[in-house]
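S., here's the first fold you wanted:
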Amino acid sequence: MSTTDSATTHVHAVHEAMLGCAREAGALMLDAAGDMTITQKGANDFFTSADVAVQDLVIERLSRAVPGAYFLAEEKGAKTAQMVGEGFVIDPIDGTHNFINGLGLSAVSIAHAIDGVVQSGVVYNPFADELYAAVRGEGATCNGEPIHIRQIPQRNVLTLVEDKWKADKIRLRSYVGGSRNLGSAAIALCYVACGRAGAYISPSIHAWDYAAGMVIVREAGGVVCENDGSDARLAEPNSIGACAPELREVLLAMWKDAEGR
């Protein structure tokens, strides 16, 4: 077997482990919903006993798949992994505030990266039983069915944004149909990937929030860029936008306008 074939086989094996792990994590989320300890980290920033339990489960399972892997995870004490070598970028429950309040827009997000390049990603919302997945160069799926960016007329585009974005969201309406905040970056990116939304913007986002969603959007035919227009990198933290390729310049223009840059 060639080195390339061996590397591909390894990525696929790890991806299969991630899929199984995400399903397990989702079952744990469903079991914990409504019966959890809630801790406040800061203003409007919470984590629960379920976040910790899911994270521990994911790290334990994936440590078996890739012994010696690094883990960059939201609820992990050390968040300074340099993302060098092989490892995982994890958000155990993206959309914790939604989860606490029983709003079914929460997901476990897992990305497998080698030397800063995401090889595959999995985002699972157990409340909707939607498992989004992608392997670099092989397309994206939801529950095993291919998904693709949808071509939406600019005036009809729904742009997903973050609540904390201090920008003039009214200005967005001069470019697109409107904006919404889902409370989960991972799900928002997957909604762009499957055509439920036309664009997504976050001016300040952690790697664990977007690493898996980034590869899913790209494999669905979309672009993920930073606010200067360059292709988004895996960085902690970062600013990203996602959309169909033909909307890239529109996204950058409205992003700049809304921020008054």
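And the second, which I think is the more interesting of the pair:
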Amino acid sequence: MINKTYPNVNNFCGGNFQDWLEVNLLKECNGRCSWCIEKNGFHPETSANWKIIADQAILTGKKNIILLGGEPTLYPYLKEIIQYLNNANLSVWITTNGSRLSPNFIRKNLVGIKGINISIHSWDLSQNEEITGVKIKNLLSSIKTLKEMNISIRFNCNCIAGYIDNYHRIEDYILLAKSLGVTKVRFAELKQDDESFVDLAKILNYRYGLNDDPFVCGCNKNAVIHEVDVNFRQMCGLQTSQRKKPYNPVQFAKQVLYYDGKIYNGWQTKESQMNSVHTKVLSILKAVENGKMTSEEALVKIFSSMDNQISLKHIENVNTGAGCQY
């Protein structure tokens, strides 16, 4: 009998949040975050019409649609896709770096969304610009407009060494959010970035249920600090070398809709595509060894596989992200 490690049922990979669909609207971003996980992300060669993407989202039967990128506010048909999904009685959410937000932009493009996550990675906005490469100019007026439109607001903060890396700085961030009228905050550990990684469990002395084994003990923990709803998001050993990788892990896949109009099991990476070709080549060589294929036939198939990899026209649904949400 093979031993398996099962995730906490409250984790994304444990089957929670299955009524959510993540939509990667575009690869373009105006930021330059050094730790961006999409640097090694899969970027389809073609882009589908916005209506095809919206229809695919509706067909999944998911109730909550979260629009991501890249930077989703750069998407030229953002207004159209939000209205279309909203008319289908779906709850639409968006995660943005906040650089394009203004009262006018919000009223023109974001009518109908349920909530917005604004990614700000320091209580000091000048530091945030240093981290992300983008300037947030209209934060206070944008928050006021969002609240007038009854749109839920949450600040998302990645904890980065040298910036948000101790309790006092976390507290300063929470107080900034509260002073701006934002009562929801998420603090997340970095994924696949050892140099800038901040261990939330350690800097918060294991309060709020934070732990050394988020895969089994739970990676999402909630607290109320200074009357602000705070969510802590830890990374397990599948996402960072700073924690032990779970043995033979079992995960629930989470659907991701890409801008090519196709749905994949989990977020795809460039590496996953290379692994797919590598597996195919090994299979072809095995067929030659067993006498089921000639060398000439094998060469044709291998070059065909490589061509597909280079053009990214043939993509396997490799479950690279499982249930984990970025």
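Why I say that: The chain has two domains: 12-258, 270-311. The radius of gyration is 21 Å.

Talk tomorrow,
H.
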